[in-house]
TrEMBL record:
<dbReference type="Pfam" id="PF00486">
    <property type="entry name" value="Trans_reg_C"/>
</dbReference>
<keyword id="KW-0238">DNA-binding</keyword>
<feature type="domain" description="OmpR/PhoB-type">
    <location>
        <begin position="216"/>
        <end position="313"/>
    </location>
</feature>
<dbReference type="InterPro" id="IPR016032">
    <property type="entry name" value="Sig_transdc_resp-reg_C-effctor"/>
</dbReference>
<dbReference type="InterPro" id="IPR001867">
    <property type="entry name" value="OmpR/PhoB-type_DNA-bd"/>
</dbReference>
<protein>
    <recommendedName>
        <fullName>OmpR/PhoB-type domain-containing protein</fullName>
    </recommendedName>
</protein>
<feature type="DNA-binding region" description="OmpR/PhoB-type">
    <location>
        <begin position="216"/>
        <end position="313"/>
    </location>
</feature>
<dbReference type="InterPro" id="IPR036388">
    <property type="entry name" value="WH-like_DNA-bd_sf"/>
</dbReference>
Length: 315
């Protein structure tokens, strides 16, 4: 009894550990997939930010070049483009005398790079943070045109600054995140299916284990025990669930150890309530009991030729 309880506890603990290990494994896989997904998204965002900055750099340098050419300046070095933040860029332009040409040149340069985001333009003196001139890209299509476009402008060193409108949060780094929805849904669905399947298996296993017979004190014989009300046979460490007739026949042998029981007596004691008695039933059921008791060397159901059967108990 103690050994049996120990085995049941150990089996239950092992099943619980396996189930928890499997669920933890599923959680780890899901978290890993989400982590990889976020890493890919960040990588795409950084790559696209880099490409956007590169396009703006080329567009601003082209604009500065043509402004200098319009001023008949082919010798002044074009300064590097400065990036203040992901959306703000500036370039220093010497001898800016043609402000009226700036909006058209800048728009052309941006279109050549396929940059379609909205922007604000500010023109500052190199030695002062005060904005001297400025406009919004929407002014290009207004009836009045760009503010101050036709006003006289002093020559000198100016900083041309362009600030782009931040992208919509629905798209990260220029890479639309709509693909996250089906991918994330599919991942969640797979995780839920795996969890449900694991849970169903766990429930089925628990149910199966819970329906296994548990032995209560009963008839002892040899190294075996019979729980007649529960129709349970324990042979060593093995438990068998008996049918009604098997339990009744075994009980008859256990109550009459080492005694020869005639075939007619067995039939009458075990099968008399059926009305129809088949002689071969005894042989079939004895064969079943022999297989169940095969692990108990102290028990033997012997055939007595022409008479019946005898259960020999060595202990």
């Amino acid at each position: 009894m103690k050994i049996n309880l120990y085995l049941i506890v150990m089996i239950s603990f092992k099943a619980f550990s396996q189930k928890m290990t499997y669920r933890i494994y599923l959680v780890k896989i899901t978290l890993l997939a989400i982590g990889l997904l976020l890493c890919f998204q960040m990588a795409f965002a950084k790559t696209d930010d880099f490409r956007f900055a590169e396009k703006v750099n080329i567009a601003l340098r082209r604009t500065a070049h043509h402004l200098l050419v319009l001023n008949a300046d082919s010798t002044t070095t074009i300064q590097p483009v400065q990036q203040k933040d992901p959306n703000t860029f500036s370039i220093r332009v010497e001898n800016l005398l043609t402000y009226e040409k700036l909006p058209e040149l800048l728009q052309q340069s941006l279109q050549m790079q396929h940059i379609e985001r909205g922007y604000n333009v500010a023109v500052l003196r190199c030695d002062s943070p005060i904005i001297q001139l400025g406009y919004n890209f929407l002014d290009l299509n207004q009836e009045g045109g760009v503010p101050c476009q036709n006003r006289a402008q002093e020559g000198g060193c100016y900083t041309l600054q362009i600030s782009f409108v931040p992208e919509n949060s629905a798209a990260v780094g220029g890479f639309s995140s709509w693909w996250m929805l089906p991918f994330g849904s599919a991942l969640a669905g797979l995780g839920f299916m795996a969890w449900t399947r694991s849970r169903q298996k766990g429930l089925a296993k628990t149910t199966s284990e819970s329906t296994k017979p548990t032995l209560t004190p009963g008839l002892k014989f040899g190294n075996s025990s019979l729980d007649l009300p529960g129709q349970i046979l324990q042979c060593g460490s093995t438990i068998h669930q008996l049918t009604y007739r098997e339990a009744k026949l075994l009980s008859l042998f256990v109550r009459n150890p080492n005694q020869v029981l005639e075939r007619d007596f067995i039939l009458k004691s075990v099968w008399e309530d059926e009305g129809i008695i088949v002689g071969r039933s005894v042989d079939v059921f004895v064969s079943r009991l022999r297989k169940m008791l095969s692990n108990d060397a102290t028990i033997k159901i012997a055939a007595v030729h022409g008479v019946g059967y005898k259960m020999e108990v060595l202990l």
